[in-house]
């Protein structure tokens, strides 16, 4: 199947590298955006922001916008890879034995069993759904990372907490890595459910951290 040649698919030659990069994705966010936040705080630029937030009685959502743009860049790269695969590879035969084995994958919920068949009858659309789920996952962890470093502007605190939280989701019964990989026995219902739980809890924690920061600013 053509879509199994793409980077997110577990049968792709570049898949291991992609998953390894996702493992350290929070480090990318911290280095690209988090270090800038630390620099602003050390230079006192954040004092202006504290005054503005206290006057407006609101929280800073710039981290959500910034993290969504960062996630979008990653997903656009995957879409470019998808387009190149379709343009350059034309000798792929029909579904392989592995594809046939998972044509009727056992989905997480019985009412979603039809989804296993849909994934393999509409693989291009299914791949786009997984890219969209990945966008939500990366946006959520990016927002959590930036919120944490704004509230605790100390690498010794923000970095370890971010990585412990992120990697914990890769070693739980709801393995986050399986929510990023299309065409596996886990099924799309697993990916949708895991993504929803992860994003919901992560965004809740991120907003909670920002509310703590706003409360602290009000006390200054």
Main attributes of the structure:
220 residues, mainly alpha, 9 helices, 71% helix
Architecture blueprint of SSEs:
Blueprint: H1 15-23, H2 25-42, H3 45-56, H4 62-88, H5 97-101, H6 113-121, H7 123-151, H8 155-168, H9 187-219
Helix pairs in contact: 2-7, 4-7, 6-7, 7-8, 7-9
Structural write-up:
By secondary structure, the protein is mainly α. The protein is 71% helix and 0% strand. It has nine helices and no strands. Helix 4 runs antiparallel to helix 7. The longest helix is centred in the last third of the chain and has 33 residues, at 187-219. The protein is globular and about 55 Å long. The termini are far apart.
- Strand composition percent: under 5%
Number of helices: 9
- What is the chain-wise order of helices and strands? HHHHHHHHH
Low-confidence stretches at least 5 residues in length (pLDDT < 50)?
A: none
Q: If you compute it from the alpha carbons, what radius of gyration comes out, rounded to the nearest whole angstrom? A: 20 Å
What does the main sheet amount to? none
Quaternary organisation: single chain
Distance between the termini: 60 Å
- Summed over residues and divided by their number, the pLDDT gives a mean of 78
- Secondary-structure-based class equals mainly alpha
């Amino acid at each position: 199947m053509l879509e199994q040649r793409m980077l997110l698919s577990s049968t792709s030659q570049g898949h291991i590298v992609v998953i390894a990069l996702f493992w350290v994705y929070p480090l990318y966010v911290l280095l690209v955006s988090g270090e800038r936040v630390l620099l602003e705080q050390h230079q006192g630029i954040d004092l202006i922001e504290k005054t503005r937030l206290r006057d407006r009685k609101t929280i800073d959502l710039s981290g959500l916008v910034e993290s969504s743009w960062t996630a979008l860049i990653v997903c656009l790269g995957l879409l470019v890879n998808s387009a190149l695969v379709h343009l350059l590879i034309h000798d792929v035969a029909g579904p392989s034995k592995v594809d046939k084995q998972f044509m009727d994958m056992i989905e997480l919920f019985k009412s979603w069993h039809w989804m296993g068949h849909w994934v393999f009858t509409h693989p291009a659309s299914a791949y786009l759904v997984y890219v969209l789920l990945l966008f939500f996952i990366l946006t959520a962890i990016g927002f959590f990372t930036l919120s944490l470093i704004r509230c605790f502007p100390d690498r010794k605190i923000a970095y370890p907490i971010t990585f412990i939280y992120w990697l914990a989701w890769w070693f739980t019964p709801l393995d986050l890595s399986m929510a990023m990989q299309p065409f596996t026995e886990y099924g799309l219902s697993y990916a949708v459910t895991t993504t929803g739980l992860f994003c919901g809890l992560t965004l809740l924690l991120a907003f909670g951290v920002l509310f703590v920061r706003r409360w602290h600013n009000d006390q200054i």
